[in-house]
Amino acid sequence: MRPEEDPDVQLMLAVKRDDAAAFEALFRKHIAPVVGFALPFVGSRAQAEEVAQEAFAQVYRTRHRYQPHAKFTTWLYRIVRNLCLSELRRAENRSARVSVSDRTNPEENARPVTDQQTQNQEDALLAREGISRMQTTLLKLPEQQRSALMLARVEGLSYQEVAQVLECSVSAVKSLIHRATMTIRDELRDMR
Question: Which stretch of DSSP H or E encloses residue 177?
């Protein structure tokens, strides 16, 4: 799809002309996926929501400079990724370093377990442990691998779009996703 065919690009061009309804439409459509993308980077839903809000604030502040060179989501996720990286750098620079287990609340994203007769407490505990292991493993991935994996597998961007967001080649994206997938597989296998 060419940028001019992207309905989100058309909305963003309306935002550029100060159309508040277009901005609200973009915000409503993309806020949940942006929060989901930021979550593995920053480790808590509250921080992910702050990053998402800052991303949309930046979209609005820079609306007059927007140029549709790619899909809107490519531009948006580049902003979100840069904000996540800034947040990670700030966290690293703090004197009191927070451990991965302290930053991640696995129950925050777990689906609530219903009290059905077929599912006992042990099954629920194993499910929460599995989610916790997956989140911990995602947080351990190098940022480029995590970004590539989340953009392609969770957000559904094509490899070409991921390459644009990460400012690298498509072959580099394939390599990043492959290495991330292998690391996750190995980590989860070792945790059994």
Answer: helix 170-191
Q: How many angstroms from the chain centroid is the CA of residue 189? A: 24
Question: Are the CB atoms for 135 and 152 separated by under 8 Å?
Answer: no
Mean pLDDT of 164-170: 92
pLDDT band of 98, cuts 50, 70, 90:
very low
Instruction: Return the structure tokens found at 127.
Output: 């499910």
Domains and CATH numbers, the chain: 1-105 (1.10.1740.10), 120-192 (1.10.10.10)
Q: pTM for the whole thing?
A: 0.65
Instruction: Give the pLDDT band of residue 3 (cuts 50, 70, 90).
Output: low
Q: Is 36 exposed, middle or buried (0-12, 13-18, 19+ CB in 10 A)?
A: middle
- In one-letter notation, the amino acid at residue 186 is D
